[in-house]
Design a protein that fits this description.
This protein is an alpha/beta fold. The chain folds into two domains: 122 residues, Sandwich (Immunoglobulin-like), CATH 2.60.40; 363 residues, TIM Barrel. It has eleven helices and 26 strands. The strands form six sheets. The protein has an eight-stranded parallel barrel with strand order 3-4-7-8-9-10-11-12, surrounded by six helices. Helix 6 packs parallel to helix 8 and helix 8 packs parallel to helix 10. It starts with 5 loop residues before the first strand and ends with a strand.
Amino acid sequence: MSKLKATMTLDKSYQIDKVDERIYGSFIEHLGRAVYGGIYEPSHPQADEQGFRKDVIELVKELNVPIVRYPGGNMVSAYNWEDGIGPKEDRPRRLELAWRTIETNEVGTNEFVDWAKKVGSEVMMAVNLGTRGIDAARNLLEYTNHPSGTYWSDLRRSHGYEEPHNIKTWCLGNEMDGPWQIGHKTAYEYGRLANETGKAMKLVDPSIELVACGSSSSEMPTFPEYEATTLDLAYDHLDYISLHQYYGNRSDDTPNFLAKNLTMDHFIKSVIATCDYIKAKRRSKKTIKLSFDEWNVWYHSNDADKQIEPWTIAPPQLEDHYNFEDALLIGSLLITFLQHADRVKMAAMAQLVNVIAPIMTENEGRSWKQTIFYPYMHASVYGRGISLKTVLSSPKYDSRDFTDVPYVDSAAVHNEEKDELTIFLVNKHLESTMPIDIDVRSFDGYELVEHIELVSDDLKAVNTVDHQAVAPQQNTNSKLDGGMLTAQLSKASWNVIRLKKGRN
């Protein structure tokens, strides 16, 4: 049996495309403790003057999140945005039908825009195309983006916001293909509504970009016909189509679980093909881009959520406690986005705080980083620039659902402004170190800065408020000599290898 080894060649001219930083976006829904007890808790010792938790703000800033989708998610399909504006004492409490809780509306559009500014993010705003439609959407856009001199813009100014928010990215509903959705629609019904809503919104503000609902997962029986019909009906007003997918390891089969980035890759390729078919059918010059605006591991909390008492306020819903193997898959999923940087221009890890999230909090207490925090942070901080094609040769394995799974997943980003090269690698082999030789001779004068790795002897290790069992460390075995980078990828590891051009 031959010794395991991988090889890779990188060349600065082998480019995929510029990475749109918005692929490192996230998502805050009025669900569970994402808002109340997550980003917002006025009684917390570290609450600021608006009630936002400063400890959470600092953790979000560490992730360098460029855009955050809001306010849903399933809840947006029965949400009246007007409930969340104006004096808080006048705001109504509502039954929130998607998650069967009470929505207090203490946080609404203006407060969320303020919070986004505090963490350095833009807002990706979703409109209700479930129980509402064109009128509510265009009114919300007028409220947020029109300068002054109209009913809705002057109402915003009377609420203390003289300048428009200038929200530039808008989602036309959420998961409208799903029978669970309030106001669920067939592809034809949704496509017509999305077209007319998009038309009206771009009349209000032609500078905005619009995201149409695609399929809620690649397993939906209507995929990809839902995308094809929607695009055919609304192509002229759309800029993006959305993709949603969650991954789990319910059968406790780690090799199979770690191969699920192949499912994401196939999903992306299928949606690209669908978009380009409609482009050809319509003889259009416009290319539709992809917004993978819900993705994560989600399965740990399913049983606990069944026990939650309905019609309570901010119960602990969807609070997955992530383990080490979850972080490995998250790394491979981020690599998949970089491999499709030419078409995947936005993404949103769902979600950001407490609800299937990299950040967890205690009510009135502390906050901490889950295992998945680290690959997300590394990709967001170091994965900005030009995504490069990685010519990789890796040993492969077969699992229950997949064949020819590469043990090594790879992506590389060249930041020309900073003269930096970052290589992202996942070794999926659970028992063996993976040596890798990487040809970087086209990066003349570059020096090895560091090799960060995320490793653990326990695939099920989790981080808690008291103990960070899984945290990055330095791998000191990597060497760069004569344009050849040699590294030892620890078994079951996430790796970030950073190079930078020397001063001489």
